[in-house]
Amino acid sequence: KVLEANGALGNDVGRLGHGLGMELTERPSNTATDNTVLKPGMVMTLEPGMVYAPGKSMVHEENIVITEDGAEWLSERAEPELIITD
């Protein structure tokens, strides 16, 4: 809803993030149907995606580690506005 309110044509990437480990993409998947309990030491991505023009989409990924107190950013936070190029 937030993406579409700001000009996105939709969000069909299927999830908002996933686990990171020995493989590029691991469980859990950050979806409404994944009930995995996050535990300290787990590394996750936050990767909102959007379709911004017919046939064109983008996914931006930031990485976090789950801690006893919540989460810690591993990647540098992106600027609030991202430049989209063709």
TrEMBL record:
Residues 2-68 form the Peptidase M24 domain. Keywords: Aminopeptidase, Hydrolase, Protease. Residues 14-36 are annotated as: Disordered. It holds the Pfam family Peptidase_M24. The keyword Cell membrane does not apply. GO terms for molecular function: aminopeptidase activity. SUPFAM superfamilies: Creatinase/aminopeptidase. InterPro entries: Creatinase/aminopeptidase-like (IPR036005), Pept_M24 (IPR000994), Peptidase_M24B (IPR050659). Residues 27-36 have a biased composition (Polar residues). PANTHER family: AMINOPEPTIDASE, XAA-PRO AMINOPEPTIDASE P-RELATED. This is Aminopeptidase P family protein. It comes from Vibrio alginolyticus.
